[in-house]
Design a protein that fits this description.
single chain, alpha/beta, 16 helices, 8 strands, 51% helix, globular
């Protein structure tokens, strides 16, 4: 009988994860009708102008550095310094005339993103108050730093930017974009509307320097997934991790099956490596009766979507042999999940392109399952994802002409 209760309890947890996007969509719709929206930067004149120390971690490739530096030099906010950590790179062609751009070449190869971040952090000056982390293939919208400055004036100590797809053509780029759309809504926008901490990406994230310096990385973080450890530490040490939807960061999506699979191997391996930290954070939240920490860790524990769906199908088939009514309930839950998934990818303008990738969902599952059986490779080393398309910020903004997104004044959030 005890095993039966455990089995039913497991099903309730799985069902709660699957039905969550539907309820978040419902809350989002109610919020729009009532005028309540996710926290946004105030349009009021900031009380303080923060100086941002931007670290770009390059590894064995420098082709993408001129475009991201170009996007930073076109910022509408000018109080920043850029520290390019060129790990195991030929820097002979990296010549930037602006004194805010500094190229750092470690004396010996690091082959480690965490070590590159620490190396760059060592060169930040006392004037650099907020650390911003970028990958070399990222691009920043011209208003990225101006928006972040407003968020830090609202009292936040850690803010995640809005990651958007830099390239959306091709089957794998569309599939990758689907994940970005789903993640941005479920893990960031909806939580921001509820006044809760959001998940971070490994790029486009900003943290007050003194907060970041408290984070201690272990050996696990040095083989990929440093952002998993970083976000649990941030959730523990700041009141709320904010989501600045207006602070747009463009990220290159993979365009072939080989890199798509390597990326998934790295992500799945990172999930299992840091699962213990998620459970410890949950216990901390329960001990403190902190709903923000409980909800945050509850979502960190959630299985990757494809694994969640795979387990659900297995359990639904098993339930047919035990109690068929449960199988029918699972079919309803799955229908709600897929309806939510399609709605989330379609309700954003960028989703009109990405949603075409829905036809290739079976291909997504194929590569995810292959990656699952190869996660030991991702646990042992940091698998690098290859990129090939060099794009400048003007290439992205030109079709719609560069313009400032409206910044809506809202009441200050409780921090």
């Amino acid at each position: 009988m005890l095993l039966l209760y455990i089995y039913l309890g497991l099903q309730i947890i799985l069902a709660s994860w699957l039905i969550q996007p539907f309820f978040l969509l419902l809350i989002h719709a109610i919020g729009k009708m009532t005028g309540h929206r996710p926290a946004r930067a105030s349009s009021a004149t900031p009380a303080k102008d923060y100086t941002f120390g931007i670290i770009i971690t390059a590894h064995q490739q420098t082709d993408f550095l001129p475009p991201i530096v170009d996007s930073l030099l076109k910022q509408t906010y000018t109080r920043f310094n850029v520290y390019i950590v060129a790990d195991d790179c030929d820097i002979s062609q990296l010549n930037f005339s602006d004194p805010r751009i500094k190229v750092l070449a470690p004396p010996s190869a690091l082959h480690d993103k965490v070590a590159s971040l620490h190396y760059g952090l060592h060169y930040l000056t006392d004037k650099d108050e907020v650390l911003v982390i970028f990958d070399p293939d990222n691009l920043a919208h011209p208003d990225f730093l101006r928006t972040l400055n407003m968020w830090y004036n609202m009292g936040y100590e850690a803010v995640q930017g809005n990651l958007q797809s830099k390239n959306k053509e091709g089957v794998y780029a569309k599939l990758d974009s689907l994940g970005v759309l789903m993640g941005n809504f479920v893990e960031r926008e909806a939580r921001s509307m509820l006044g809760l901490s959001v998940n971070i990406w490994g790029c486009g994230v900003s943290v007050k320097k003194e907060v970041y310096q408290k984070i201690i990385y272990d050996a696990k973080s040095r083989t990929g997934g440093f952002d998993k450890h970083m976000q649990t530490e941030l959730a523990r040490n700041v009141d709320r991790i904010g989501y600045a939807r207006e602070a747009i960061v463009y990220d290159e999506k993979v365009e072939d099956g080989y890199n798509f699979e390597r990326q998934r191997i790295r992500w799945i391996a990172a999930y299992f490596k840091f699962l213990g930290e998620a459970f410890r954070l949950l216990l901390t939240g329960i001990r403190k009766w902190d709903f923000n920490l409980i909800y945050f860790s509850y979502n960190l524990i959630r299985l990757p979507w494809f694994l969640l769906l795979l387990f659900t199908c297995i359990i639904a088939a098993t339930d047919w042999l035990i109690y068929p009514l449960l199988t029918h309930i699972w079919l309803v839950i799955l229908a709600f999940f897929f309806l939510s998934f399609v709605s989330i990818t379609a309700m954003r303008e960028e989703g009109r392109s990405a949603s075409r990738g829905l036809l290739f969902i079976p291909l997504l599952f194929y590569h995810q399952i292959r990656a699952l059986f190869r996660i030991r490779a991702g646990s042992r080393s940091m698998l690098k994802t290859g990129h090939s398309k060099i794009v400048y910020i003007d290439d992205i903004l030109r079709p719609t002409a560069p313009r400032r997104q409206p910044v809506e004044p809202l009441s200050q959030p409780r921090l």
